[in-house]
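Why should sequence recovery work at all? Because a backbone constrains its sequence more than one might expect. Tight turns favour small or flexible residues, buried strands favour hydrophobic ones, and helices have their own preferences. The token representation captures these environments compactly. In the example below, the structure is given first.
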């Protein structure tokens, strides 16, 4: 039976970073898959480009994650315990790679399968993006309280904050400068932009 080793404050901080990086890898890869499918179904070059940019981000994050895990090899009670973490990180990267390959269908202008082409032609949805203004009434609110879908009919796909992408959650707090990408019926585009900018046409 192995004896548990008491962790120092430095060790705790290190493992917290590894945990946070793994959660970010998981969330980002899932977000990429959502965007990639939406890019194909909506034939959206913009969403496909976002997936490509996210792939660059996740590649860098995965490299950093592996480095952080491997740096604990010498101090781990059993280095084999670290293999599970490395494998989990690799799985998230493979999901991200798959999402990127899906997005490439749109970026390269590859002719979709006839069935998928029918779906695209019949789709009544569109994609819109807008930057959240200081004048918007939803500044500082959570997505749940902002009720963007109820007010506009547009569903938030992803939030871009600076150089980071955020997968929308009910508790996500909206900040000025956030770029919000949403999909929905074209009738809701104007309401969506007005809600985020605080300006009426």
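From this structural description, the recovered sequence reads:
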């Amino acid at each position: 039976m192995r004896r548990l080793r008491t962790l120092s404050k430095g060790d705790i901080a290190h493992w917290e970073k590894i945990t946070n990086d793994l959660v970010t890898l998981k969330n980002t890869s899932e977000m990429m898959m959502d965007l990639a499918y939406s890019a194909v179904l909506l034939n959206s070059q913009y969403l496909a480009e976002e997936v490509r940019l996210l792939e660059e981000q996740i590649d860098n994050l995965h490299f950093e994650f592996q480095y952080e895990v491997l740096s604990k090899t010498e101090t781990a009670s059993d280095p084999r315990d670290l293999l599970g973490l490395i494998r989990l990180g690799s799985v998230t990267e493979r999901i991200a790679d798959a999402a990127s390959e899906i997005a490439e269908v749109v970026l390269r202008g590859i002719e979709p399968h006839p069935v998928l082409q029918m779906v695209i032609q019949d789709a009544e949805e569109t994609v819109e993006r807008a930057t959240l203004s200081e004048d918007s009434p939803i500044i500082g609110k959570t997505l749940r309280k902002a009720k963007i879908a109820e007010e506009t009919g547009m569903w938030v796909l992803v939030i871009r904050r600076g150089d980071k992408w955020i997968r929308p959650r009910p508790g996500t707090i909206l900040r000025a400068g956030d770029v919000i990408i949403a999909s929905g019926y074209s009738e809701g585009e104007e309401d969506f932009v007005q809600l985020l900018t605080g300006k009426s046409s």
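A few observations help interpret the result. The chain has two domains: 9-114, 124-197.
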